Amino acid sequence: MTSNILILGATRGLGASLRTLYSVKTATHVFATSRSSNPEPSPGVTWLTGIDISQPDVGQKLVSQLPSTKLSTVIVQMYTTSAIGPVFVVHNLVKAGLLDQGSKVILLSSESGSITLRHEKEGGGNFGHHASKAALNMVGKLLSLDLKPKGIAVGLVHPGFMRTEMTKSVGFDKYWDAGGAVTPDEAARTLATFIEGFDLGKTGEFWAPGGPGDIGTAGDVLGKNLPTPLQLPW
């Protein structure tokens, strides 16, 4: 039986690494979204084009390009965070019968969305980024409550601090070594392993599959000798 994976935001960074990783797995087909109308062809991948998660019609556009087949996993990767976007996506997928008992929805958030992990050690600032991730976490939690009776699991994930052009463009490359940054390919492998074991028993929870290594305040707030994967506080 083929496992159908939908990756929203699959053209670069972690999304591209996940697309490549899943596309070479046996009995797996990848549906990948792009905001552009002309993404580069990729073996084992069906491109869904013109998909912008910040737009209110994203769910309808997505469903109109998908075949009538159950999706085993939906991974939502957003570069410009739109906290309400996943609601439009998931509700339309459920309404179309593409998500059902046993399906998984993984929303890629960030430890920066945890209010508990904010600490005087790191100070304030980054208001928009932190607040948008906190809002995404709330959306994911509420979706998990809506979808649990249908047997659909929803997870919030901090995929890790990554060595990408995006983090470099904002000057964070100077923290790559000290902050335990990994490549998108490494983060994708860790995330895929976590998703494989993720089920309804963990729905509505917030996790760091790679553990506490790149979370600067983890030791100050949560203590020492923390496990990997690490469940994060809200």
TrEMBL record:
> Which SUPFAM superfamilies does its entry note?
NAD(P)-binding Rossmann-fold domains
Q: Please name one Pfam family that this protein belongs to.
A: adh_short_C2
What one GO molecular function would you report for this record? oxidoreductase activity, acting on the CH-OH group of donors, NAD or NADP as acceptor
> InterPro entries under this entry?
NAD(P)-bd_dom_sf (IPR036291), SDR_enzymes (IPR052184), SDR_fam (IPR002347)
Q: What is this protein called?
A: Short-chain dehydrogenase/reductase SDR
The organism named in the record is: Penicillium digitatum (Green mold)
